[in-house]
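Posting here for the record, re: magnesium ion.
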Amino acid sequence: MNTGRYFFHDRLRKILLVLGGVFFVLLALEYLYARFKVPEFHSTLVTFVIFLGALVLVWRITKEAYNMFRIAERISDMSDDGVVVTDRQNKIVYANPSVLNTYGYSMEELRGRTPNVFKSGVHDDAFYREMWRSIHDKGAWSGEIWDVKKNGDHLLKTLHIDTIKDKKGNTLYHLAVHSDITEMKALEAERDLLANYDQETKLPNKRYLLRRMKALIAEEIPFQMVLMKVRNSVYLNDRYTKEEYTESFNELRKRLNADNDEIFYAQIDTEFFAFLTHKNVETQDDFDHHVRSFVDLCEKPFSSGMRFKITAGALRFPKDGHGAEDLYNKAMVTFEISAAEQERYLLYKHDYHKTLSREHVLRDALYEALKNNEFSVRYQPIVELASDKIVGCEALLRWKSATLGEVSPEEFLPVADKYGYVHEIGTFVIEQSLQDKQTFDKESQTPLYMSVNASVSQFGEQGLKSSLLKAIETYNHRAQDVCVEITESRFVEDYDVLNKDLRDLRRAGVHVSIDDFGTGYSSLKRLQEMEVDTLKIDQSFLKGYPEKNDGDLLKAMVQIGKSFAFRVVVEGVETKAQHEFLVQNGCDRAQGYYYAKPLLKETFLEQIKNS
Ligand code: C2E
Ligand code: MG
Ligand code: MG
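Prediction output follows.
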């Protein structure tokens, strides 16, 4: 910045010019005096020169002060900020155009009045008392203040008041500079809405949730947190409108509000919500009861007929953690485990972190497995008990990971399901098994029955139906020789999702089997309505027979299956006695180590040849 230096040089130049001029005038006068010998000339000349000098000085100072005033006035005129100057009695002596435009007054209307003319009535007397106390004590005040315009509109501004004093410290003027921040605040509110609320539902988001948690933690207010996801949303979205969905959620909020002293909601993701409640829960049993009734309320049907099925993970502060992020992460772990285990809800336990780290190892290894073709399919024979012949097989997935070795499908499938790999894996099993079935059929007198396991998440948009029907066509199979197995618990809970695809598959001729039957609590009435051909009774019903298990329960289940005209298959047959028991009780088919373990394609081919 050279402005200061420039001013200095300019002044010096002018002073030198003036001095030079005076010097030449004096020289000229000295010459005249010597020439004409004027008496008293010396003293008159000195007086004149001093007078002239004083005149020049006063003129310059006044001119400079005037110029400075013009500059200040110009700056204030040009400023977007409002400037108001009041005298020592706090009467307005100056207001810049920004103030006049913003407030709608003319200078004449304001001159002589106090700034009370802008008082909005929003602030109480204490506010103004505090402001004046600061002006008296410190000579200044800064803050935000609501004012009112001439037309009655309110505006919010930041205000800075300064005092201009004389040398003795007496107040001469008050200078108030302010900016209108009404729009800025509106923008801030908008930004707040963007940052802290879900844009679609206008519910608080995760960021807001964490803020709220931090506030509660800071005040040491105990709370419970439930993270909850609507599991059957695919089906609900299909059947109900967005409005019905929102309405149901509002109904749920009312229900929860009625049952809880205070509640806070946040939307973390689509159909994924967080709730903070303040119930007096002393013991873990109280907490369990609280979360269970919470989940019950969520799953109660709504007036639209809609019904949520949820998975939840819950914990409480301060028992389960101390920081907001820490609590959130723990609740998330609990939720994820609850979702993977298909629970309605789980309460946080300290060892959940370990479970999750194994899950992440599996997730990363699964990603590699898909790239490196680490999957294969084994075939376990299914024997027709009447003829004692192999009539089919179950395709069972195997994974030999380069890093983890062999991992059981029961361990990795829930992880694959959760991280979205199940479709790719499922398609591989369908392709591989139906292609291999071509080879098997060539060796067998009649086409073999191929039973393929499927996860619920392969249905619907994931397209299991179309990939299965396509593969049947590609490999030229009869649809009735292909069966889809779905475990009973999934059948019961997610029937709404499965129903349509299963109906279509059955119409096309594909068989549907309930796997692990007896573990999923299907009601008999429900069983009758289901799109099912085969019941595959879970191996636990045969376990221990005859030593520790009299087989009565299994007998009853076979009878139920038969009375509904289902084909009945029993799995987990390990001994001759078990095999004979099934033959005696009219069971159709059986599968188990007694006949064969899940086999490599080549070994299974040998078995068929020898069968
Ligand atoms: P599942 O469908 O009930 O399959 C039967 C399981 O019991 C298989 O375990 C099989 O090896 C085992 N098993 C067969 N006979 C006997 C026996 O006599 N005794 C005993 N103790 N066990 C026997 P595996 O192969 O480990 O599969 C476990 C589960 O993983 C399967 O249960 C099925 O639910 C799932 N699974 C396997 N392959 C696939 C697949 O390709 N897709 C899907 N979605 N799930 C699959
Ligand atoms: Mg199975
Ligand atoms: Mg099974």
